[in-house]
Amino acid sequence: MSAASFFFASLLSLAVAGPASQTFIVQESLSTTPQGFTRLGAADASSSINFRIALPSSNVAGLEAALLDVSTPSSSNYGNHLSKDAVNAFLAPSDQATAVVQAWLSSHGLSANTSSSAGDWLSLSVTVAKANEILSAQYETFQHVASGKTYARTLSYSLPAEVADFIDTIHPTVTFNNPLSISPVLSVPKPAAQVSSDASSCATTVTPSCIQSLYKIPTTAATESSNSIAVAGFINQFAQKSDLKSFLKSFRTDISSSTTFTTQTLDGGKNTQSASKAGIEANLDVQYTIGIATGVPVFFVSTGDDYQDGDLEGFLDMVNFLSAEDSVPQVMTTSYGENETDMSKALAFKLCTAYAAFGARGTSVLFASGDGGVEGGQSQTCTKYQAAFPAGCPFLTAVGSVHGTSPETASTFSSGGFSNYWGAPDYQTDAVAAFLKAQGTTNKGLFNTSGRGYPDVSAQGENVQIVSGGSTEGVDGTSCASPIFASVIGLLNDELIAAGNSPLGFLNPWLYANADMLNDVTAGSNPGCGAAGFTARAGWDPVTGLGTPDYAKMKTAAGL
Question: Where is the signal peptide (predicted)?
C-alpha cells in the first residue's frame, strides 16, 4: 500500500471504527504515584479537562541545527536570526498528522483548535469520562500533599495504533507538576545599606549600585527603543509601580523615579496595583531589570488563571504567546521552575523545542536554575541528585547564584547538576569533561555523567534588596541572579543594535566559546540528598556554571 493510500485508509478506519475494535498502544505511563502525591479515588466523570495535544514538528533536528548555526560565533550565519515564518516551518506538523488526529477526534464527536502559531499544539476540552474512553485511561484524583491541591491525572494512557505516531504527548495525563513554584526566600531583614559605588558592599547587602561596580556595568542609559527585556510573571505575582518608584528613589537616584515598565497579559492576566497584592518575585524581577539595565524597555508579561496548559501554570502559553508575535523581545528572564521528574520526558522535550524556536528568533532565554541545590528546582527528599526543569534544557541559559565578593562564593541553595533527559550539547562537552575529570570519583553514581550540565552562568543572589508592599527587605534565590544576568545581556544588546549588529540571541555557544570573559567562581558547594553536592572549581562547574559577568570583557567578546 502506498503512503497516500495508507493515509486515507487510516482516516477511514478512524471514522468507522469504535473504541472496542481499535488496537491501542500505550503512549506514556508511570509505574507508581509520583513522590509528594496521594491518590484519592476515581476522578468525577463529569468534570472537565482542558487537553493540549502536541503534534510532532516536521523538522526538530533542522530547527536545532539552525539555532546553533545562528548562535555560534564561528558560523558565517552568526546573528542571522530566523523569521517567525522560517521557525514555524520547522515547528509545523505534517498535514497528515493534523488530519489523522482531527479525524480521530471527530470519530468521538470532538474537534480541537490550533493553539500555537506553528500549528503543533491543539487544544480542546473534554469530560473525564470522554478522556477515559478515547485514551483507554483511568483518571483519578491525586492530591499534592504539601499544597493540598488536587488534580485529575492518569498513570497511563494509550492511543489507537493509527494515531500514536502522530502525537508526541497529551497534557494533562501523566505529568504531575509540583504546584509550589520557585520564589525567593526572605533573608533575615536588614536595614537598607547606604547606596555605595563600592563593589565590596555586595559582600553584605546587594543593591544595583554595588552590582554595577562589581560587574563593571555601565550606568549610562540605553538608546535603542527596539531592544527590550521581557520579565515572565506567573501565579498571580503582581509588580507594583509604587514599589518600583520607591526602589529607584533609594537605589538608583541617578535616574528618574518615574521610570516604569509596560505590562502585557495573557490567559486573563492582570497586574493589580495595591500594597496587599505586591508580589515579591514580580517586584524583584522588575526592579533588578529596570534598576540595572538602565534605559532598556522592560515588559512585565503577566499570566492569568485562565491558562490552557493545565498545571503548567501558563509556561507553555507564555512561550507560545510571545513566539506568535512578529517582533520578539531580545531577552526573556524567568524565575520559576520545578524538578525535571515532575514533567514527562515527552512534554519536557516539546517545551524545550519551543525555547529553541524562541532562541532562533533572536531571544536570549534565561531561567533561574532553581533553589534546591542538587535536590533539583526545589528541595526534596532524595537519595540521588535530582535535575531541575527547565534549567536542564540545552537551548536556554540557566543562571545560578553566588554571594560575597572576596571571593564570590557559590550559594548552597544554587541548583546545579546534570539532566537525566538531555545529553551534554556540543557547545559544553569540553567544559563538562574537564569538570568530570577534576571531580574524579566524588559522588560517583549519584548523577548522570552524560547529561546536559547546568547552570551555565551565575550572579549575585543573596540578601538582594527590594521594595515590596512599601517595605525594603532582602531576598535570596537564583530568582535574583537571573534578572541581574538578563540585564547585562540587555545592555550589551543595546550597544550591538546601536552599532548596526544583531542582538546576542541564544547565548550558550557564545558563552562557552568565551569563558574567560566571566569571573570564574571557585569557592562553595550545593549540598543535598544527604551528600556533599558539587563543589565550585576552576572552569565550568554545576554550581556556578562558567561564572559571573564582567561587562567590559563581555563587551569586547561581543565585538564592541
Answer: 1-17
Give 338's strand partners.
389
Per the residue annotation, which of 64, 224, 285, 340 is the catalytic one? 285
The total number of residues written for the chain in this structure: 560
Active-site annotation holder among 281, 340, 456, 494: 281
Least confident range of 199-208, 248-257, 444-453, 477-486: 199-208
Q: Is 157 in contact with 137 (CB distance < 8 Å)?
A: yes
Q: Are 468 and 283 in contact (CB under 8 A)?
A: yes
Kindly list the distances between the CA atom of residue 450 and the CA atoms of 436, 505, 541, in Å, as whole numbers in the listed order: 10, 26, 14
Cβ burial, residue 353 (10 Å; 0-12/13-18/19+) = buried
Question: Which DSSP state fits 158?
Answer: E
Point out the annotated binding site for Ca(2+): 520-521, 539, 541
CB 186 within 8 A of CB 474: yes
Cα–chain center distance at 325:
19
pLDDT of residue 234: 86
183 among known catalytic residues: no
User: Do 424 and 507 meet the contact criterion of CB atoms below 8 Å apart?
Assistant: no
3 CB neighbour count, 10 Å cutoff: 7
Place of cell 532553581: 370
Detail the DSSP E strand segments found in 304-456: 331-334, 338-339, 364-368, 388-389, 397-403, 409-410, 417-423, 451-454
Active site residue 224: no
C-alpha to C-alpha distance for 199 and 206, rounded to whole angstroms: 9
Average pLDDT over residues 241-252: 96
Q: List, in order, residues 6 or more apart from 5 with CB less than 8 Å away.
A: none
Residue 19 clears pLDDT 70, i.e. is over it: no
Instruction: Please tell me the predicted confidence (pLDDT) of residue 372.
Output: 92
Domains of the chain from N-terminus onward: 18-57+92-171 (no CATH), 193-516+526-557 (3.40.50.200)
31 carries an active-site annotation: no
Cα 218 to Cα 434: distance, rounded to the nearest angstrom: 33
Catalytic residue among 479, 482, 487, 525: 479
> 3 Cβ partners below 8 Å, 6+ apart?
none
Going by the annotation, the residues of the binding site are: 520-521, 539, 541
Of residues 7 and 275, which shows the higher confidence score?
A: 275
Percent helix, strand and coil across the chain, each rounded to 5?
35, 20, 45
